[in-house]
Amino acid sequence: MKMQTTIVKWGNSQGVRLPKHILNRVHLSDHDEVDVYVEDDSIIIKKHCKDAKHKTIQELFAGFNDEYEPIEINWGEPVGKEIW
């Protein structure tokens, strides 16, 4: 199903209105939690799965085959009451 809509200002953010028939089709309703992520040039919205297992650090980096060398980042001088 394809639908064209417009991005509208909503407070300090922007939003997209989704018709009820589209939400019904994917079993979403008012106040359901969703996960939003970007993939290439698309925005993906999926129903949040509370039972989803969080991945371990080993699982997250399972496909990483490069060398990692940490670097120190210069954040500049303190501008408030930061403790250095």
TrEMBL record:
Native source organism of the sequence:
Acetobacterium malicum
* UniProt keywords, alphabetically: DNA-binding
Query: Which part of the chain is the SpoVT-AbrB domain?
Result: 8-53
Q: Does the keyword DNA-binding apply?
A: yes
Query: What GO molecular function annotation could you give as one example from this UniProt entry?
Result: DNA binding
Designated name of the protein: AbrB/MazE/SpoVT family DNA-binding domain-containing protein
**DNA-binding among keywords:** yes
